[in-house]
Amino acid sequence: MDPLLQLLAINSKRTAAELAAILGLSLKEVQARIEQAEQDGLILGYHAVVDRQRAGQRGVTALVEVKITPEREGGFDRLARRIAKFDQVRECYLMSGGYDLAIVVEGKDLLDVANFIAEKLSTIGGVLSTATHFQLKAYKQNGFLAAGGGDEERLPISP
Questions:
Q1: pTM for the complete prediction?
Q2: Domains in the chain and their CATH numbers?
Q3: CB neighbour list of residue 105: distance below 8 Å, 6 or more residues apart
Q4: pLDDT single digits (tens) 92-128
């Protein structure tokens, strides 16, 4: 991956001047490369990684395994894009293994997520089955330890 994109993926809060100093490039070159990456769709967006528990967010997150029937002339793509457009879907991935899509769904409570799956997701033509796993606690998200993680020592490795 491009070193500039790697640095932004780790910490998008760095200024263009900081990135230029780290990479040994001019400020204008870094600004132009970032702007071009945004226009080309390489950079999809910027966000803060928030410890939802500490922030008091009481919503529910679930990982949903989805089996779908691939479509002629399009495979999984058209149906996956359709599912990804729902507001409740935060992430959507094509997977190998026992199911086709892994989607991360958020709702205000268990019933909200259950209703989304029963009334919207499961009723889409081509969706064969779903399996829902509710998140109980986050220990690490987007590369960051959450909820006070990191205070403990690493486990010893035994031969």
A1: 0.76
A2: 3-39 (1.10.10), 60-136 (3.30.70.920)
A3: 61, 62, 63, 64, 88, 89, 90, 113, 116, 117
A4: 999 999 999 999 999 999 999 999 999 999 999 999 9
